[in-house]
Amino acid sequence: MTITHLVTHSGGFHADELLSSVVLTRLFPQAELIRTRGRQWLEPAPSKVIYDVGGAFDAEAQIFDHHQRPGPLRDDDLPYSSFGLIWAHYGRAYLAAMDVPANEIDDIHAKFDSKFVLPIDLLDNGAMEPSVAGPLSILTLPSLLGSLKPVFDEVSPTADDDAFFKALPIAQSFVEAQIRNLAAKKRAQGIVVEAIAKAGTSPILELPMGMPYLSVLTKAEADHILFLIHPRGEDWTLNCIKLSNDTFDQRADLPAAWAGLTDAALEEASGVEGAKFCHNARFIAVASSREAILKMAEIAVQNV
User: Fold this and answer.
1) How far apart are CA 210 and CA 208, in angstroms?
2) Among 3, 133, 145, 246, which is most buried by a count of CB atoms within 10 Å?
3) Which of 73, 75, 37 is closest to 55 using CA atoms?
4) 135-174 pLDDT tens trace
């Protein structure tokens, strides 16, 4: 039967039902989203999806609440919020609707669950302190979405609903951006693997454009690669490679004599015609051609 209504609770909103609504409104765009606690709306029916309200979890009946005792748990006994329940049941269909390739859906579904959905579940259930989710709790997604709620002395009777429906497209943009990034990383993996093979024993990796690469380098144990080059617009860039995404420390720095120089001054210091810029922190340099950036990369290798 066609889904005609998406039903969640009225009043103040939280990240879990807001993000659940992002998934459900894409899958059922013709359905009306109802925010209510009216008993007649909370009776399961084939035409409804009920979530974050209703006092039960029954995927076959399309009711996805987590406030009852005992609440639904993952296989590792961590608690679900409504978002986790909706993602587990509808997430793969959502990814297909986002045009994620069929052979990548399971992997991206799992990665999005662990990186994005699980923290929402834990925070909503009080199973993770905001300080753990982010040292500055205001920067956590639930806090950012929560800041879109009406202020305490807003007197409009529709204030909560108005704020919810204004927040919904903002939440949608976060979810869709995460999915696009995960899908892009999957596409990048094959390109980087091929580039590593082509580089062989060279300490210089060449990519056809800027893209995520560090996790692939690490997995491939390509520790001999010290610098990365790729085109950027009409220029080419020479990039240092961080030891990990958790630090600014690099496998190797660009030459100290280049730091902060541009154009003629950098050409003179490097001896490379076409050298245009080197960051003062020595993690990136720019040249006007592939030939010039390769020369700079070779000099940087010799300087290590």
Assistant:
1) 7
2) 145
3) 37
4) 444 447 888 888 899 998 988 999 999 999 999 999 999 9
User: Are 56 and 65 in contact, with CB atoms under 8 Å apart?
Assistant: yes
169 and 76 assigned to the same domain: yes
Q: Are residues 178 and 288 in the same domain?
A: no
- One-letter amino acid identity for 303? N
Question: Tokens 């587990």 label which residue?
Answer: 88
String of DSSP letters for 172-211: HHHHHHHHHHHHHHHHHHHHHHHHHHHHTT-SEEE-SS--
* Cα torsion through 49, 54, 55, 58, rounded to 10: -20
Residues in a beta bridge with 290: none
The structure tokens listed for 228 are 């990365």
Q: How far apart are the first and last CA of the chain?
A: 66
Domain of 29 in residue numbering reads as: 5-184
Residue 193, domain member (yes or no): no
Question: What is this structure's pTM?
Answer: 0.82
- On whether the CB atoms of residues 201 and 190 are closer than 8 A, the answer is no
Instruction: Identify the residue whose tokens are 């600014």.
Output: 248
Q: Kindly give the interhelix angle for 159-199 and 105-112, rounded to the nearest 10 degrees.
A: 120
Tokens of 134: 């982010």
